[in-house]
């Protein structure tokens, strides 16, 4: 196998599943399976890799070896601070500064040593490993 797409298609055929069946058994979106098998998606989160490996009866390492490493360009301090401010203001539709996918955001309510409320912005990318914690 030369590519991740070819490997996944072959393994899926070996276990006798359609793309939809694989998506259902692995509990991942069908669109992700389609993108992986079309070669549009070259990397996946660890949990997805583990789910697919279990259903495809292979090792997660076999899948990982075929994935393309993402070059992680760390966003600047200013970009991250700007995102934090937008999260605190309740801005929606924020995009990941690394890959452009949707950011999943929340504001955590905490308390300082004087028992005053402190709000802490958090975010993680829906596609890559970018996060603000």
How would you describe this structure to a colleague?
The N and C termini lie far apart (38 Å). Helix 2 crosses helix 3 (30-37), helix 2 crosses helix 4 (46-56) and helix 4 crosses helix 5. The protein has 133 residues and is α+β, with helices and mostly antiparallel strands. It has a 3-stranded antiparallel β-sheet with strand order 1-2-3, with helices on one face. 43% of the residues lie in helices and 15% in strands.
Helix content: 40-55%
What is the strand arrangement across the widest sheet? 1-2-3
> What is Rg?
19 Å
Q: Termini separation (Å)?
A: 38 Å
- Overall pLDDT, averaged? 89
Q: Any low-confidence stretches, pLDDT <50, length ≥5? A: none
Number of strands: 3
CATH fold label of the largest domain: 434 Repressor (Amino-terminal Domain)
CATH architecture type of the largest domain: Orthogonal Bundle
Assembly state here? single chain
Q: What is the count of helical runs?
A: 6
Net shape? elongated
The CATH superfamily of the largest domain appears as: lambda repressor-like DNA-binding domains
Strand content: 15-25%
Largest β-sheet summary = 3 strands, antiparallel
Secondary-structure class:
alpha+beta
Give the helices and strands as they follow along the chain. Answer: HHHHHHEEE
The CATH class of the largest domain, by name, is: Mainly Alpha
- The overall number of domains is 2
Could you give a quick summary of the protein structure above?
The chain is α+β, with helices and mostly antiparallel strands and 133 residues long.
